Amino acid sequence: RGYAPIVTFVFGRVLLPLVLVLVVAFGVFVLDMFKLEPAMKFVAVMGGAVMGYYIPNVVVKNVTQKRQDVIRLGFPDTLDLTIICVEAGLSLEAAFNRVADEISDSAGELAEELGLTTAELNFLGGRRQALTNFADRVGTDEAKALATSLIQSEQYGTPLTVALRVLSRESRD
């Protein structure tokens, strides 16, 4: 969160192609590592530039995928705890806050997202926006389904626990 990851990404996107161009050019032209023809040497240098340009995207995609996998693994238990809290009479905000405290050791990323969602539920005007922000930040199908179910449950007045039980069962499957 914050500006540091964005600055690092942009810095890598600008600097890495230049660094790889210099490294490949040194290896191909000065050290003559692969004994290539002159035209192929230029192709290799341009390939280094292209690789340097796409490496930050690959790294971000891998980090995102790992984060989503951790969130996906902790999601069914989170839903079960949320059901228990709601059945005990807690509001959605209080349930999310309690669940975030309970799962912080096993699914820290999901606990952080629930904490942010709780803050947004308390400070934003409408629940719809806070729940939509949650689904957008997490980016998994389970989170989108949860946000949609909670929005519809509030909109149509259906019991919250019924929707959460169905989601829990589906996410476990």
Provide key terms for this protein.
mainly alpha, 173 residues, 0% strand, 84% helix
SSE inventory with pairings:
Layout: H1 4-30, H2 38-87, H3 92-103, H4 108-123, H5 127-138, H6 141-156, H7 160-172
Helix pairs in contact: 1-2, 2-3, 2-7, 3-4, 4-5, 5-6, 6-7
Range of strand content: under 5%
Largest beta sheet, briefly?
A: none
- The beta-strand count equals 0
- Cα(first) to Cα(last) distance is 31 Å
Helix content range of the residues, please? Answer: over 70%
Individual helix count: 7
Low-confidence stretches: none
Q: Rg to the nearest angstrom? A: 23 Å
| Average predicted local confidence, pLDDT | 93
Order of helices and strands: HHHHHHH
Q: By helix and strand content, what is the structural category?
A: mainly alpha
Describe the structure.
The chain has helices spanning 4-30, 38-87, 92-103, 108-123, 127-138, 141-156, 160-172. It has 173 residues and is mainly alpha-helical. α1 (4-30) packs antiparallel against α2 (38-87) and α6 runs antiparallel to α7 (160-172). 23% of the residues are buried. The mean pLDDT is 93.
